[in-house]
Amino acid sequence: MQNTELLRARLPDECKDVRLNVSAVLGGESSLTPAQRWGTAVACAIASRNAELVRAIEQDALLQTGPKVIEDARAAAALMAMNNVYYRFRHMVHEPAYSAKRPGLRMNRLGQPSTNKLDFELFSLAVSAINACETCVQAHEKTLRAGGISEDQVHDAVRIAAVVHSLAISLEIAGSMSAN
User: Fold this and answer.
1) pLDDT, tens digit (0-9, with 9 covering 90-100), for 87-136
2) pLDDT above 70 covers what percent of the chain?
3) Closest C-alpha to 45, from 138, 154, 123
4) Inter-residue contact 176 to 21 (CB < 8 Å)
5) How confident is residue 179, by pLDDT bands cut at 50, 70 and 90?
6) In the chain, which residue ranges form alpha helices assigned H by DSSP?
7) pLDDT band for position 178 (50/70/90)?
8) Which of 20, 123, 160, 180 is the most buried (most CB within 10 A)?
9) Contacts of 20 by beta carbon, 8 Å cutoff, 6+ apart
10) How many C-beta neighbours within 10 Å does residue 10 have?
11) One of 80, 130, 136, 160 is an active-site residue; which one?
């Protein structure tokens, strides 16, 4: 967690809670495997759109897992960027005609990940939580629970999503403070 720690150390006192939470969700006890934990963190860093954070978390993840986990995390973030917009729209307009239409969006990687389907679903759930897509969150959570992933694992993945997203915002705060 060396690279993430360097970012964490730059956070101002206003973000002390975030500093502590980063250590807790990425370095503390977890119901997740290292691949689940770090794949979720990579996907969430990408979804949070902070290039510096993505680099740091990917470098730390590579030491804990392997390149296939990072590939799947990247793919999950990219697919959810598309799906979350599409399914959020369908949910928000409350127009049955749109829900009856075939999406026509390719998402083969969701069914054939490099690692395993449940981990990919977990990464997708976490990104969908960041992107606030209720339909996708519900669908991924249902698939995960039916596949044997525990409530604790789902909860831990969403905690990672919340903290990684908060870390991205905190880094923006730190950057704006140092620019003044």
Assistant:
1) 999 999 999 999 899 998 888 887 889 999 999 999 999 999 999 999 99
2) 98
3) 123
4) no
5) low
6) 2-9, 16-22, 34-47, 51-64, 67-93, 96-100, 108-111, 117-130, 134-146, 151-179
7) low
8) 123
9) none
10) 14
11) 136
Tell me the C-alpha distance between 74 and 78, whole Å: 6
- Is residue 121 within 8 Å of residue 140, measured between CB atoms? yes
Catalytic residue check, 133 = yes
Tell me the C-alpha distance between 116 and 100, whole Å.
Answer: 30
Catalytic annotation, pick one of 57, 70, 77, 133: 133
**C-alpha gyration radius of the chain:** 16
136 catalytically annotated: yes
Question: Which position has the token pair 């959020």?
Answer: 88
The average pLDDT across 147-153 equals 97
DSSP 147: T
Comparing CA positions, the residue from 98, 164, 94 lying closest to residue 129 is 164
The C-alpha atoms of residue 1 and residue 68 are separated, in whole angstroms, by 19
Q: At how many degrees (to 10) do helices 51-64 and 151-179 cross?
A: 140
- What would the pLDDT profile of 36-60 be if each residue is shown by its tens digit? 999 999 999 999 999 999 999 999 9
